[in-house]
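check this one:
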Amino acid sequence: MIRFFIDVFRNAPGPFKKPRILVADISEELLDLIKSRIAGPTSGTAAPCPDCGGRSPAKDSTSPTDPPAPAAASAGKNNTLPAVDPRLRTALSSPANLKKQTFKVLAILWDVHCRNPRPLSAKEVSTHGKEALGLQILHENVRKVIRMKLEPWVTVQTEGKGNSSIYRYVISDEGVRYFEKHYLS
C-alpha cells in the first residue's frame, strides 16, 4: 500500500518532477531497509562475531548494504571474464570509468544488449554487473542513476505486480551509440 502512494507521488503531474522522484526513491530505499531489518534473522541485535574476538561487530564494520569491494580491485580479473567484448574489457580497465556509476550502468546494459537483449530489473542489472563484468553497483543506485542521469539513453518499462510496480531497464539505440562513442572508442 505504501509503495502505491510512493508511485502516485512519483508519477503525479506538475512541477518539481526531479525532486519528487528523488524523494520517492529515498522513501522506497527506506521502506526496503525497514523491511530487511524487520525480516532479518537478528532483528537489529548483533550476535557476537567469532572473527571479532567474541565481541559484537562495531558500527564501523561493513554493513550488508555497503558495496563489498571497489570495482577497481576486480578490474584486474577482467582477463578471466567470459565472452566480454574486447572494447568493453579495455573500458573496464580504466580506473576513471570505474568511478562513474553512469558508466557502470551503461556498461552492464550494453553488455546485456550485446549478449541477450532483454529488459532487466535494477536487481538483475546489479547481479549481471557483478557476475558477468565484475562491476559492483547496488540496485538502489541503479534506479537512482537511471532516473537522474540516464533517462535519455535507457528505456524504462513499468510492470505492475500486486500493489507495487517493477521497473525494467533496456538501453535504447541512442544509448548504445552514446556508450560506444564515449567509452568504447
Notes: Strands lie at 120-121, 154-161, 164-171.
